[in-house]
Amino acid sequence: GDMDRINVPPAGPMDLPLSLLEMGCSGRFELITHPLPGQPLPPQSTLPHGLPPTSLSLETEVEKQFLRDPSWLPIHDTDFAFQRFLKCVFLIVKVNSATFGSVNTGLSAKNSLSFQRQPGPPSESLRGSNTNYPFLPGGMEELSLDQIKKKSELEEDVDFENDLLRVPPGLKAGMDFTDKDAKIAKAEVNLMSLLSALDDITALQPEEEEKEEGKGVEEAPKLPRTNSLEDLVIKVLRLKSKPKENPVENKKWAIPVNITSPCDDFYKRIPNPAFKWPFELDVFQKQAVLRLEAHDSVFVAAHTSAGKTVVAEYAIALSQKHMTRTIYTSPIKALSNQKFRDFKNTFGDVGLLTGDVQISPESSCLIMTTEILRSMLYNGSEVIRDLEWVIFDEVHYINDAERGVVWEEVLIMLPDHVSIILLSATVPNAVEFSEWIGRIKKKHIYVISTSKRPVPLEHFLYTGNSSKTQKEMFLLVDAVGNFLTKGYYTAVDTKKERTSKHAQSFGAKNTSHNTSASQDRAVWLTLLHYLSQRQQTPVVAFTFSRTRCDDNARSLDSMDLTTSIEKAEIHSFFQKSLSRLRGGDRQLPQILLMRDLLKRGIAVHHSGILPILKEVIEMLFSRGLVKVLFATETFAMGVNMPARTVVFDSIRKHDGTGFRNLLPGEYIQMAGRAGRRGLDPTGTVIILCKTGVHEMADLHVMMLGKPTILQSQFRLTYTMILNLLRVEALRVTDMMRRSFSESHRDTQAHEKRISQLKQMVSSLPPLDTEGQLSDLLPYYHTVTELRTTTGALQRAILESVNGLKALSVGRVVVVNNKQHFNALGVILQVSNDSVNRTFTALIICEKGNEEGEGKGNNISSQIVCLMFPLLLVFPSGPCSHTVQKLKLQDISAITVKTLKVIPDRIIDNYNKRQQPRFRLDPPGQAISTATQELLRLAEASPSGIASLDPVNDLQLKSVDVVEGSMRLRVLRDSLREFNCIHSPTFAEQFARVKERMSVQEELDMLLFLVSDQSLSLLPEYHQRIKVLQSLSYVDSSGAVQLKGRVACQISSHELLLTELLFENVLSPLAPEESAALLSCLVFTQNTQVEPHITNTLQEGIDRVLSVAKRIGELQRDCGIPQTAEEFVGQFKFGLTEVVYCWARGMPFAEIALLTDVQEGTVVRCIQRLDEVLKEVRQAARIVGDSVLGSKMEKASLAIRRDIVFTASLYTH
């Protein structure tokens, strides 16, 4: 044994190389005479660890562990026990059926979406391959018949309902899985179940009493009569365990979780959590953890500092416990790196995948950018098989116009077994968004939303600009969220007082938006001096321009905010972090400048700063060594790096199109950086008032307004279309139908209504279209068209200026509505609101039809009205009148006549006579004059008064109106030709047609809404398919061709790159030239500096531009609404010289001098260029162009060096 083992010194020159070796376990020994090279002592046995284990069958293992183990089988209550070890039963089923451990050989990643297909080669297990099918996305189960047939031939699903194994080995009887009432033998009633049943009985009784009163309500479950308590319990339990009948149809997918009441039983429900924190969780965190334990998907909306990471951490811990995997995706590479460091420290087993880095991809938790997850899903990566959670951080990024679509694609493509965790800043429409995800994935999403801040914020206005005024800080919004107008007015007064003095002394009034550098410097020096006195550092100063950041930091040359100890710490950290850079790179001007700033506790953070410097600054900042950080908005998007104070240099920013105020969402996101949990009682937010105090309304909206709602940025990309066309079972329209932009389509409700309408149609009485009635249907269609044309014309008239002028007081009109039918009226009043304009009119009618439902509803009269629109129907009996408010559509014609009326008198008199006691008075003078005039007009022209012609009289010359009025004449004339109107049963038959047609029309409309034809992006989809077909990426049947396969590999600008490949634009170029040329795909800024480049490169650029122009024009011809100039304009060649020189080995310091683009931007571009080169290399491999492939490899090697490709400080 171990005890007897003696530590033998290694063999020396004097020792004989002799030794015994035991052969196997049989007791034979052999003598070893030659020493083994590299081993101090020869081995003692050929089997140092004994015999290998014999193979146990899985079945016996499972039986032993679950079915023969008494601790697993409760003695009482086997009914509930069954529910508990259902999982094991599944396991046994699986072991015994052939599906366990065997993968269906007919299925592979090239022909099936099923999880039962064979795994691909190990080299492709991580990223998948662009010839793989994806796995079937969750919620896309609408398979066609032939697919189902195909499916059944190849794969048998594990059936958890039938053919279950029932009798465990060694037992006489076993489980009965058929759905029967729960049978409970008498002997097995234990005390607990008795008590719980008694609770149920007491709970049942009061209900019964209520039910007794309201007879006709559903019968309550009556308590059965029994001989003993036990029987009673058994029967009650039986009542309880009946399966629920048909669940509610229109269920909501998003379930808001109430987080107001404390979660007391948390530790009871989760006695041993997968992860423990050193602090007590908030209610919203506990609720989220409970949902994760139940394996539900959650949407958590909370402020940045509220602790959403807890939810992510718990999911990672759970998946480590379950031996599954979690993918954490974030929108920004820097964020991924920081999360990698945090999770690596917490969990250890964490990997990172970004465009250029790949660290331990076999880990159980993978952190990646959303784009990479998208390509893994499209390419059917094997990682997806083991995936339990996907965590989407910063989901509000779905509003990003450029990249928001990626989130939607990923959410749509995720398979069914993956649960989703969405973490987002507070958004108003969290429930609506979750409802969409729940509906497309067919799973519930629990919405947990909290607006609580662990550290409340106080918002101030600051007007100080000199040592005398440095204390001018006014509270505007207090910690509870009240807007204090008093603070606002004090700020305005202080500022005004100073400005007026200033104006007196200088004469001129300076009220521009901008301030001079020296004014800025004064404000910043004053403010920072004041804040550091009050120990309010660290401060983040948000400035919305990069140059402004740099200038502000440089102007503080006289300021020193660090102690000597801190200076030493900063110095050593700075040196250590940059020690990996080459000597020349350490002397870059930006680095030297930042070193001086950092020593004094000042730093700058924006996209122009070198990535490694940014990371140094972030790390020093989180340690509290950077006291003032001038940052752009990107810093707020990044990781949780809170400060004591946040200062807004201005509240206006340029968003690519123009200047605007900050949106509430942006302001909250940035202001939320103030206040460090556990360190500060409140966070301070300060808005500088440099030129004047901002408008109160603007401030109020920005600070207390609703944050931006999540909006879909879904758009079709060629990559998406090609990736889905590769796979027969997935259609692009499925993707479009599931996008958030189409989330208003409530297909379920529509489907239900459709089936109702179909039944209605089939139950209607048949139509009689014999003999005289043979032209009934065409007649109906003509009438309908006549109606719509008249309606459209009326609208055009009434919306036109001249039409409204004509409809003034005194105009005689023809009225048609439910009550009046071709009646004459005169307008008395026109309302002012332009939206629903109403006209008060005096109308003549028969006595007895002043109020009632007149003849307007009668079908024959409606038809007469359509045929002879000007035929006036005047009262047959004694005449009366009514005053009514009419809508535009009630006026069917505007006549050429006007009358003199006295509107007020008419209306007053009419209203007076509506009261009971004046009901029998004769009408007043004004009314009787007007009615007599109207009657006279009607009698004078019985065939109708001429009406104003829209084209000639009202001068409406638009095509629609002219065509409409001509069409109207034709239709009216054609109505007289029909025979059916002479039939005696015409009215009744016409009513039938009308009823049938109205049902049919609604049905057709719903069928259209449910169909793909109603997708808003469908026309664009056809346009893009046309582009792909004319470039032969897909053939006429939609099958993906070689060019299409290449384009699938490429993530952005796929058409241009593929065309360049197939036109051999890169073949005459050297590796460094091709890298320089391709930089136009990743560089997006404009430059002022003209690049100096070689002739071959210039030719290359011209060819790229001509290819781009060709594609742009083709897109235009196919109907895509982007001009060829716009398409060509997205490719910018400002960095070609820089990249060319870099690829040829020029040091970074010299390259920075070639361009006005900032160092950080150059580095990011070259990094992204490397990703493009990789994609082109892949593409070249598909085409079989090995020369191009090796050229790309060379180019890639040439640019991957020095400061551009230093590894992130977070990842090692």
Give the arrangement of secondary structure elements.
Blueprint: E1 19-23, E2 28-32, H1 58-67, H2 78-84, H3 86-96, H4 145-154, H5 191-213, H6 229-240, E3 254-256, H7 266-269, H8 283-293, E4 297-301, H9 309-322, E5 325-330, H10 333-347, E6 350-353, E7 358-359, E8 365-369, H11 370-378, E9 387-392, H12 404-413, E10 419-424, H13 430-441, E11 445-449, E12 457-462, E13 473-477, H14 485-506, H15 517-533, E14 539-542, H16 546-555, H17 564-578, H18 583-586, H19 589-599, E15 602-605, H20 611-622, E16 628-631, H21 634-637, E17 645-648, E18 652-654, E19 659-661, H22 664-671, E20 683-688, H23 696-704, H24 718-725, H25 732-737, H26 747-763, H27 776-799, H28 801-806, E21 811-815, E22 823-830, E23 838-846, H29 859-867, E24 879-887, E25 891-898, H30 903-912, H31 925-940, H32 959-975, H33 986-1010, H34 1018-1030, H35 1042-1048, H36 1054-1062, H37 1071-1078, H38 1095-1117, H39 1124-1129, H40 1136-1143, H41 1148-1153, H42 1159-1183, H43 1186-1199
Parallel strand pairs: 3-11, 4-10, 4-11, 5-8, 5-9, 6-8, 9-10, 12-20, 14-16, 14-17, 15-16, 17-20
Antiparallel strand pairs: 1-2, 6-7, 12-13, 18-19, 21-22, 21-25, 22-23, 23-24
**Adjacency order of strands in the biggest sheet:** 3-11-4-10-9-5-8-6-7
The major beta sheet can be summarized as:
9 strands, mixed
Low-confidence stretches: 82-102, 182-188, 201-221, 236-249, 504-511
Distance between the termini: 43 Å
Rg (C-alpha, Å): 40 Å
Number of strand segments? 25
Strand percentage: 5-15%
Number of helices: 43
Oligomeric grouping of the chains: single chain
* Overall geometry: globular
- The residue-averaged pLDDT reads 79
Please identify the structural class as seen in this structure: alpha/beta
Helicity range: 40-55%
